[in-house]
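Take a look at the protein record below with the fold in mind.
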Amino acid sequence: MRQYLLMPDIEGAPQAAAAATDDLAETVRATLRALVPPGGTSALAFQPVPTPLNLRDYLRPGSDEVEPVRAGIQLSLVADTVGEIIDGDLVTGTTTASGLFGLLLTGTANGTPDAAAVYGRLRGAAEERYRGDPHLILPTPASWCVPGVLGWSNFSWKTGDSSGGGLMPSTERVPGPEWQWRVLGPEYRAVLGQPRLITQAASTDASGAGQPAPDGARLRNLAALAQADGPPALGGAVTLNDTVVLPAVEQPLADPRHVVQVAGSLDLAATPHVADSSSLSVSFKFAFVTLRRPWWDGLLVRNRGWRIAGYAPGSLSPGPDSTSGPAVGLPVGMVLVRDVAISGTWSSDQTQVVENSISFGPFSLLGRTISTESVSSTTTMTVDGTQLCAWLVEVLPKLPPSPDEAPPAAPRELLKEGSRGPNVERLQRQLAACGCATFVTGRFDHATVEAVVAFQREKRLKVDGIVGPHTWVALFGTV
């Protein structure tokens, strides 16, 4: 998570952010929070490190048409994640949403027989969808990355405004972390005007082999690229540590996760500053893209009658109202911004802070252009590209919901077609809890034989439809 360190700016201005910046931040948060549907368990969470998106990576090369496989893979690499909601940010790690749901499918029923049967039916259906799906994420609109498809709303604010127009109720204020300018060191500043250097650093190692660089080497590569003699030509190569590195246009698509990691490393290497301006103005356009996962089953996730062996209740997600840790959010929508323009009058030292910053609040400044009006001394910074600014997240419930308990002792009775009694009922309930469709009748009928055969085949046991010691242990052990 980004650390919002309070530091004086170059001129020694007060550490607290100016009221104008606070008003701007609260207005932006309130405007975007209006995208959250009322009620329910959804929330707005900002991207901790502002992330530029190259929408050409989602399109067929040389055209404005969506390449479905290419776009699906790229979007899943960006959005197949879950994270902790901390100070209004979605702080992600290495856990993917698809991986988490796969773990949830290892759960076993932990409740009354009827509740176990319900869980079993839910898990069986969810597991079938999960196993038959490539775990892609489907956006709405489907061609969101095509120019002209998204409907963009306008936001415009200047010092003294009570709202930014758009969606925000003018009386609402949403406090949050202080916005600061993140200033890059001299060795990285060439990146500000050439953001594609980040893609090169994320994609290529120092050997020029075209393999992803280790985390520790990416910033070193970036510094070498940024300090190369002259900007790298689109059609040529760059000399990096006496090795020729191919340009980004001749490399495969960069994994967007690596690009985010490089941007995050740059953000951590930057120094936070406050640059106060009494005439601050900000404008941008914003749009919303809904994300759907056909393989994610919300009914199963919200079911309370199951456990996972080896996991304490709430260890994967503490739930929305827990005091034991931050809530966990699953992205169900992206908030995109573009055409960011920031203007103000600053002192010469503060202008240096602004011009050398990689970000301001939730906005990336990579690829920015700067102009200064000579009469009013107003400096304007514009960033034309599309950025991932925030997420709409579904706050996950307590996962797993129930404690891991020792499984009940497996019966020893040999059961086969025609058997009757309480152990047949136990068998049928446990088969249902494992996702094998059957009814609890107390009679070992043909439907029960089919359920046993399906279970034995799944567990790679001897497939004979007879429940003996090995089948009992598989049923009442870790399913």
The chain has three domains: 19-181+274-395, 185-269, 422-476.
